[in-house]
Amino acid sequence: MTPNQALQKYFGYSNFRHQQEEIIAHILNGKDVLTLMPTGGGKSLCYQLPAVLLDGLTIVISPLIALMKDQVDSLNINGISAAFFNSSQTPDEHQQLFEKLKNNQIKLLYLAPERLFSADSKLIDFLQSLPVVQIAIDEAHCISHWGHDFRPEYLMLAGLKKYFPSVPVIALTATADKLTQKDILEKLDLKDPAVFVSSFNRENISYTVVPKRNSFNQLLAFLDKRKDQSGIIYCLSRKSTEALASNLQAEGFSAEAYHAGLDNATKARNQEAFLRDEVKIMVATIAFGMGINKSNVRYVVHIDLPKNIEGYYQETGRAGRDGLPSEAMLYYSPGDAQKLKEFARVENNPEQSRIMLKKLDDMVRYSELQTCRRQFLLRYFAEDAPDNCGACDVCLTEVERFDGTLIAQKALSAVSRLKERFGAGYVIEFLRGSKSEKIREEHKALKTYGIGADINKPDWQRYLRELVATGYLQSSDGEYPVLQLTNKSEGVLKGLEKVYLIASQTIEERDDVIVLP
Ligand code: ADP
Ligand code: ZN
Predict the structure, then answer these.
(1) How many Å lie between the centroid of ligand 2 and the Cα of residue 120?
(2) Which of 153, 162, 297, 472 holds its CA 20 to 30 A away from the CA of 32?
(3) Ligand 2 centroid to 396 CA: how many Å?
(4) CA-CA distance, 330 to 210, in Å (whole number)?
(5) How many angstroms is it from 11 CA to the middle of ligand 1?
(6) How far, CA to CA in Å, does 515 sit from each of 94, 208, 396?
(7) What is the distance in A from the centroid of ligand 1 to the CA of 510?
(8) Residue limits of the Helicase C-terminal domain (predicted)?
(9) What are phi and psi of 3, to 5 degrees?
């Protein structure tokens, strides 16, 4: 049977999607593969179809026991013999399963990573005695500290290749930036792997960021216009999900909370009600969403700043699975970023702290962007995109600009005089000619000291951010970022290039959401 025939016969589809066909061909040729495909893109088929065609057992590692059962049920309905192994099964059930495996009656075996190596089951030894032809590792980013959903039990998979050196491994994920991808390949020890990255663009989702002021009132105004729609509101803390859900209820909205600290019955009840549209709004921590397949989520709101782009993009991706216009709304405040910065520091692990801070920095950059947000997101995942998407707040807002060359020159020369060794706060104090003791005496003697006294502090903050966003300045990585010049700075300093800055009131007014046409 060819892959095309199997696609038709077992799955009832006539065409492959994205790069499914090539991915499957690689597996059939015995190659290791890393697959990045957005949620709903069709990852499962990439290993399920080879499992059908290959003569032997496919082991599927998946972190979520609840999902395994669904997958196994639907495979069995399609006439593909699949089973899962987990700790809820009795020893008798395990025995029966082992018999079937020995008799080659099972094509796909699903299990959680911790089961594979648990000492009591000796499962790994048993599996080695079987004709294993493929190993699929779902949610592969869970193996990386650098991803946003690290699971320690996934680290056990690092030794897997040693047990099955010649079996092709396919790692799958919907969320991994360059660094996480590299980490996955290394940890799993994939041999000469082929990496497939499908387009991550979600054309039907519009992206909007607005400054967070009184977030509850802002949210009410947003929700008022979307009363009959289904949506998810992500909060940072468990406590705030419950408080917000009950405040929304008090305002007459249909909302429930979801977080990992709720008891299982409540979680299941709230989730069910949301899936069945009995509850319109789910107020949740990021614990909510993985594996949830609700097609008509019309908006995803982040009321607090997410920790990184990967998480943000995955969460916003839960909107609009049905392909209809949907919205991603983020309420941004620099204060949130400051709070997250404190959490990002990992005890005794400077390397990881550095990476977490860098990722947070990217999240802040995204929030303060003056250029197309979709382009930024896609480039973040190493995909190119045009300058104007026509469906993010930046692209949809006409901004009024003015000739800010002089302002830019003042800022750049201050940075230069301060030898590129100070952060934005200090540069602004310096520009404004602050009498504070914090400003060094030798700096107070410089000609540039106080040249920007006519501009207030919030405006300077905005201008500096904009100069960074447009590449006339750069902000160094790390805990105490300093402002530095770039290769674009010189032209401005020499008066060869004009700089147009955004008039401040346009930003103030940019407070409502723009709905896709
Ligand atoms: P992912 O794991 O990437 O989130 P799934 O594997 O669950 O996505 O696939 C999402 C949906 O797309 C499923 O309903 C699946 O049956 C369907 N699908 C997968 N491949 C194809 C295809 N080639 N043609 C049509 N539908 C497909
Ligand atoms: Zn855009």
Answers:
(1) 54
(2) 153
(3) 7
(4) 6
(5) 10
(6) 53, 9, 10
(7) 38
(8) 215-361
(9) -55, -40
Dist. CA 115–CA 123, nearest whole Å: 8
Tokens of 303: 């009321």
Ligand 1, CB within 6 Å, residue ranges: 13, 15-17, 20, 37, 39-45
Is this prediction's ipTM beyond 0.85? yes
Q: Return the residue matching tokens 């860098």.
A: 358
Q: At what angle do helices 309-316 and 373-380 cross, to 10 degrees?
A: 110
Report pLDDT for 221: 95
Cα 279 from chain centroid?
25
Question: What is the position in ligand 1's atom list of the atom closest to the CA of 43?
Answer: 3
Q: What is the DSSP track for 464-491?
A: HHHHHHTTSEEE-SSSS--EEE-TTHHH
- Nearest residue (CA) to ligand 1, atom 23: 16
Among 117-121, 227-231, 452-456, which stretch is predicted with the lowest mean pLDDT? 117-121
Q: Binning pLDDT at 50, 70 and 90, where does residue 121 land?
A: low
Helix (H), strand (E) at residue 225: none
Residue of the nearest CA to atom 24 in ligand 1? 13
Q: Tell the residue nearest (CA) to atom 19 of ligand 1.
A: 42
- Look at the alpha carbons of 58, 63, 64, 67 in this order and tell me if their dihedral is positive or negative: negative
**205 Cα–ligand 2 center, Å:** 11
Counting ligands in written order, the one closest to the CA of 70 is 1
Rounded Cα–Cα distance for residues 349 and 240 (Å): 29
